[in-house]
Amino acid sequence: MSTYDDIASELPRLRVSFGFENDTAFLDSDDNVAEFFDVKFCPYQPLDCDPIFAAVSKKHVVICKLSQSSGDANPCEIVSVIRDDDLNAIQIKCFTGHGSDVNDLATSPFDPSIIASASDDTSVRIWSLDSKHKERPCLCILAGEGHSWNLLSVAFHDTGRYLLSAGHDQIINLWTLPDLPTEPITTPIRVHYPHFSTSAVHSGIVDCVAFYGDQILSRACHDNVISLWRIEGFSSDGPPPAQNIAPTPQNIVPTNYDEAGRLTRSAFVPTISPQCPAQYTRVLDFHTPNCGPQFFMRFKLHFVPGQHPVLAFCNAGGNIFFWDFKRLTVYSDFMKALRNHDPSKGIPPRPSWLRPLQHRQRTDAAGKPRLSTVEKGSPASALVEETPKATEDIKEFSAETLESWTAKYSLEDAHEPLRAHKTESSSSNFVGRQAAWSPGGEWCVIVGSSNTALILQRWAKKAPAKTFEPPKEALVAK
Fold it and tell me: Which residues pair with 133 in a beta bridge?
C-alpha cells in the first residue's frame, strides 16, 4: 500500500504533448521560428475545478483546460485560440508607459491587483488593476541605477514587499517596494537604487529569478546550472530597509579582486569583515546539462504550504528535470540515522524513492564474484569512514548506489551540482522555454520550440505518454 510520503514524493511523468499550428505565416518575413515563450496557470481557481493555463506564442494565445480525471487519454482540451491582433477579443485594459518590449510579468502574491513588468527599457514598473487608479495605473518605477541592459525576469517575494529583477547585463537586483498609493496619483513613485545588486553569481545572461522563502533561485545561459543562494543579512521577518540606505554604484565591494567588473553592493552587509566575509552565499547548484548558448529558458518552482517544493526545468535537448527539495532533508536524516543506528536493530526504514541501483555482479581477475567497494576519496567514502559500527550495514548498498544517492541528494559539497531526482524525455529537438505548475501541484506544463507543449502529471494512474493533434477547428485563429 502506498503511504502518504510515497504519494507526496511522486514526481510528474509525461502524459501528452501537442503541437499548435505553425504561426510563422503571421510573423514578419525575417522571422521563421515558431515558439511558445510563456505559459501560466490561472492561480485563482478552486482546487476542485479543472485547471486552466494559457500558452503564449509570437502571435497567439492558446487557452487550455486539463481534465482532473487521470484516466482520460487526452487530458488537455484547447478552449480558445486568439491571435494578438484580434484586440477586441482580448483587450480589457491597456497599460502604456514602457519605452520598449515587455519580457516578463509577475503578480504580487500579497495583492493580486498589483502587477510588475520588466522591459527592454531597463525598468521595472509596478501597476495597479484597482479602478481607483484607472487614470494613472503605474504606481511605481524601479529604474535609474539598477540595470544597464534589457530585463528578462522579475519575481515577487511572498510578502509582496521585495522584488527581484535580472537580464542581459548579468545583474540580479533586489528592490524594496515603498508603500504603494491607495488613492489616485498623478506621478509614479521612483526608486533609483536596489538594496542589493550583484553581477557575480552568474557569468551569462540571467533569464530567470525566483524567491524560495528568503533565498533566491536563478539561472543564466552557458552556466548549465540553476543556483540557490542567499543574501547575507537579508530577512523578510523584520521591517523593510529604508530607501536612503540603498547602496549607490560608488559604494561597491568587489567580490573577486582579479575581476573588478564582477561587483556586488548590499545594504544588508555594506562591508566585508572577518565576522561576515561575504555579501551573498551560494547554497547549492542544480545540474542542467545541454543548455548551450540558449537563453530565455526558465524554470518554475512549485512552492505552496503542505506540499513538497519541486523545481522543474527543461533543457535544449527535450529533457525535463525535477528536484524535490523535501527529499534533500529526508535523505540527510536517513543517512545520519544510518550512520548512528544500533546495528542490532537493523537498518532504519529507507524512503521508497531512495532505491538501490540494480547492477551486474563484478568479478575479480580469476572470474570470481567480488563485492563492490567505495573508492577512497569519493563523496560516498565518507559514509563508510565516519562511523565504523555502521560500515557493514552501509555496505549492503553498492558503491554505485551510494555514489548515485550522493550525486542527487547530498548537500555536503556545495560546489557539486545536484543531478535531477527525475528526468522525463521528449523530442531531442525540443527547447524548453518556460515551465508552469497548476495551483494544486498535480500538473506541470512545459512550452517551447515548434509551438509545442508538454503536459506532465503527478498522482495519476499509470498510462503511456501520448501525442495527439488538437481538433482542426482549434487550429484556426478566432
Answer: none
Tens digits of residue pLDDT in 220-247: 998 999 999 999 999 999 999 999 999 9
Q: Are residues 219 and 280 in the same domain?
A: yes
Instruction: With both helix axes pointing from N to C terminus, report the angle between 325-340 and 399-409 in degrees, rounded to the nearest 10.
Output: 140
Asked whether residue 273 falls in the same domain as residue 199, the answer is: yes
Are 139 and 146 in contact, with CB atoms under 8 Å apart?
Answer: no
CB–CB of 64/79 below 8 Å?
yes
Give me the pLDDT at residue 349, please. Answer: 86
Which residue from 289, 235, 267 is spatially nearest to 425, judged by alpha carbons? 289
Regarding whether 107 and 250 lie in a shared domain, the answer is yes
pLDDT of 70 reads: 53
Nearest to 153 by CA among 107, 99, 85, 106: 106
Same domain, 87 and 108: no
Shared domain for 23 and 51, answered yes or no, is yes
The verdict on residue 417 lying in a domain is: no
Task: Write down the residue that cell numbers 514578419 correspond to.
Answer: 28
404-409 CB contacts, 8 Å cutoff, 24+ apart: 404/357, 405/331, 405/354, 405/380, 406/379, 406/380, 407/379, 409/327, 409/328, 409/331, 409/332, 409/354
pLDDT single digits (tens) 248-304 = 876 555 554 444 445 899 999 988 777 677 899 999 999 999 998 888 999 999 999
- 242 assigned to some structural domain: yes
Q: How many domains does one find in the chain?
A: 3
pLDDT given at position 400: 87
Asked, for residue 21, whether it belongs to a domain, the answer is yes
Question: Between the CA of residue 455 and those of 19, 60, 91, 115, 118, what are the distances in Å?
Answer: 11, 19, 28, 27, 28
Same structural domain for residues 278 and 405?
no
Residue 418 lies in a domain: no
Sites in the chain below the pLDDT cut of 70: 1-4, 27, 29-31, 68-73, 84-92, 250-262, 275, 359-396, 461-478
Q: What pTM does this model have? A: 0.87
Dist. CA 104–CA 115, nearest whole Å: 10
Tell me which amino acid residue 80 is.
S
Q: What integer pLDDT is reported at residue 225 of this predicted model?
A: 96
Same domain, 229 and 105: yes
Buried b (16+ CB within 10 A) or exposed e, 228-254: bbbbbebeeeeeebeeeebbeeeeeee
In this structure, are 133 and 196 located in the same domain? yes
pLDDT of residue 394: 58
Q: 251 in helix, strand or coil?
A: coil
Q: Cα 313–153–104 angle (5° rounding)?
A: 100
Question: Residue for cell digits 531531442?
Answer: 428
Domain that holds residue 267: 95-295
